[in-house]
Design brief:
Elements lengths: L1 H15 L7 E5 L8 E4 L5 E4 L9 H12 L5 E5 L11 H7 L2 E6 L10 H11 L3 E4 L12 E7 L2 E2 L9 E2 L22 E6 L2 E5 L5 H8 L2 E2 L6 E3 L11 H7 L3 E4 L9 H8 L6 E6 L14 E3 L9 E5 L5 E5 L5 E4 L2
Parallel strand pairs: 3-4, 4-5, 5-6, 11-13, 13-14, 14-15, 15-16
Antiparallel strand pairs: 1-2, 1-17, 2-3, 7-8, 7-10, 9-12, 10-11, 17-18, 18-19
Helix pairs in contact: 3-4
Length: 335
């Protein structure tokens, strides 16, 4: 009996010491035209990127909390606000009250002309005395197990190319810098490149085309990406051809709403991008008709929905699997 107890104890100890799954996990939460992504590294660290809209009914808060609970998250190691618009940072305080963050990351002080100062004030008040890290291009986030490089922040762009990148971007030929769209905080978005082994993902939040131009022209400092988080909910103020086509993603995920984003011009840019196999959508875009992708790639088909999410599981060899939680449909993209 004593030998059996010892054997069982050794088995339990072995199980407890097994490493976490060696994958990078992403949960793209449906905030109906806002943004919220939960990142779980292979080391088990967690980061919430934006938190959707502040609403009296706590719709987006509840969706984030539910998704976090399913992942066993009781606090976030990091909460990153890409910029200070309502649909990105406006709900951080509400989520933080239920699942607190340890460290907060952002682009620094708000613009004097910011459209929604109350959302910035709410964000700053929520942080209180906890650690806050303002980032600049070239910084690497302090996450374990995955390298996340800041390529844009506070309307500044990466000044030195990432390893293996920096070649001339032929798509910039004959293109002039798009007109600056006022002092818009979208242009201040924190843009990120995730690297996990051979897997690469680019997420530039709501970056506008004139900053995209400064980032990608005349040379491409990023190189190629496997997965592209479509910028600005699929609006044409972002997602220039000289950016998207230069990245050559295999798949793209669009966090659009039923009536917000998913613009036909952006679908056209994506559809013509070299090597792009699929676009996954948070919602059916009601104004874009047959530009929408097949239903199996769309997480929510109607305005009144359950807020189904899109999940990504990336491997070190560069392969990754995208899953639509509405119907369970998934597809794996090979290196």
């Amino acid at each position: 009996m004593r030998m059996l107890i010892l054997f069982c104890s050794l088995v339990l100890l072995t199980v407890s010491l097994l490493p976490a799954a060696d994958t990078l996990e992403l949960s793209v939460i449906d905030t109906e035209g806002g943004k919220a992504i939960i990142v779980v590294t292979p080391e088990g660290e967690t980061m919430l990127v934006d938190a959707g809209y502040p609403r009296p009914d706590d719709r987006d808060t509840n969706r984030i909390v539910e998704a976090a609970a399913a992942l066993g998250i009781k606090e976030f190691d990091y909460i990153l606000a890409t910029h200070y618009d309502a649909d990105h940072s406006g709900n951080v305080a509400s989520v933080d009250a239920k699942i607190p963050g340890k460290v907060f990351i952002d682009h620094g002080e708000a613009l004097p002309t910011i459209r929604s100062p109350k959302h910035y004030d709410s964000y700053i008040n929520a942080i209180g005395g906890r650690k806050r890290i303002p980032v600049k291009p070239g910084d690497v986030l302090p996450l374990q197990g995955v390298k996340v490089t800041v390529v844009t922040s506070a309307a500044e762009v990466l000044s030195r190319p990432m390893p293996g990148a920096g070649q001339p971007n032929a798509l910039c030929a004959g293109v002039t810098e798009p007109q600056t769209q006022g002092r818009d905080d979208n242009a201040y978005s924190v843009g990120l490149v995730y690297e996990f082994g051979d897997f690469r993902m680019v997420d530039l939040a709501d970056l506008l085309q004139h900053i995209e131009f400064r980032l990608m022209c005349p040379n491409n400092p990023i190189g190629a990406a496997d997965l592209f988080m479509v910028s600005h909910h699929g609006l044409p103020q972002s997602n220039a051809k000289f950016l998207v086509h230069a990245l050559r993603p295999k798949a793209a995920i669009m966090n659009n709403g039923h009536r917000k984003g998913g613009h036909t011009a952006v679908f056209d840019v994506l559809a013509s991008s070299p090597g792009l196999e699929d676009v996954w959508q948070a919602h059916y875009a009601s104004r874009s008709g047959d530009k929408n992708r097949p239903e199996r790639f769309i997480a929510n088909l109607t305005a009144e929905c359950e807020g189904k999410m899109i999940k990504v599981s990336a491997q070190r060899d560069g392969s990754f699997t995208v899953t639509n939680t509405r119907n369970g449909f998934s597809k794996t993209y090979r290196p």
